[in-house]
């Protein structure tokens, strides 16, 4: 019978909670630095989950001291993978923060939408093209087909 204060349950719940908080932060935030921090939180949860996957509660550290019968040991492979993931994660985080610094210097904002708009404007200006500012209206000289009068009246609007 498992107790509410079972350490295994608490650790698994914590790992899943960290992953959920990190993914929610990435999805819900529009600030680029907060998105990087949310990814760091999700990564910590994933690393905790990997360590828990290889851990055995009734085992000892995988260190052989004698030639006698070894006791049940913890699997060292997930621990090595997590150590590698931590090192790679720190490198990716450093790269992300350096990119954020460059974005802030160039566009004076870390808001995702504003930075994307300023980048699009800069790219369009460098190519000498008009920037597409509307996602609803078509570009160019192509006219929209007229809406039949009976469909306009069905929508509740006045016929032109």
TrEMBL record:
Chain segments carrying region Disordered: 127-160
Entry superkingdom: Bacteria
Subcellular location per the Swiss-Prot or TrEMBL entry: Cell membrane
Keywords noted in UniProt: Cell membrane, Membrane, Transmembrane, Transmembrane helix
Keyword Transferase attached: no
Transport found in the keyword field: no
Gene3D superfamilies attached to this UniProt entry: 1.10.287.3510
GO annotations of cellular component type: plasma membrane
Transmembrane segments: 12-29, 36-57, 77-103
Signal peptide (from-to): none
Main location: membrane
Membrane topology note: Multi-pass membrane protein
Protein family (similarity comment): Belongs to the CPA3 antiporters (TC 2.A.63) subunit C family.
Designated name of the protein: Na(+)/H(+) antiporter subunit C
Organism: Candidatus Thiodiazotropha endolucinida
Organism lineage string: Bacteria, Pseudomonadati, Pseudomonadota, Gammaproteobacteria, Chromatiales
């Amino acid at each position: 019978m498992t107790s509410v204060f079972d350490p295994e349950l608490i650790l698994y719940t914590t790992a899943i909670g960290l992953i959920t908080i990190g993914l929610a932060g990435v999805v819900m935030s529009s600030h680029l630095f907060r998105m990087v921090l949310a990814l760091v939180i999700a990564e910590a949860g994933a690393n905790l989950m990997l360590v828990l996957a290889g851990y055995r509660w009734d085992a000892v550290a995988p260190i052989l001291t004698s030639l006698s019968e070894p006791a049940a040991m913890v699997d060292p492979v997930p621990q090595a993978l997590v150590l590698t993931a931590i090192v790679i994660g720190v490198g990716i985080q450093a790269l992300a923060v350096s990119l954020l610094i460059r974005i802030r210097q160039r566009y004076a904002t870390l808001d995702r939408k504003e930075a994307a708009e300023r980048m699009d404007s800069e790219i369009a200006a460098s190519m000498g093209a008009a920037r597409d500012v509307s996602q609803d209206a078509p570009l160019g000289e192509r006219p929209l087909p007229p809406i039949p009068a009976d469909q306009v009246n069905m929508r509740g609007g006045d016929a032109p």
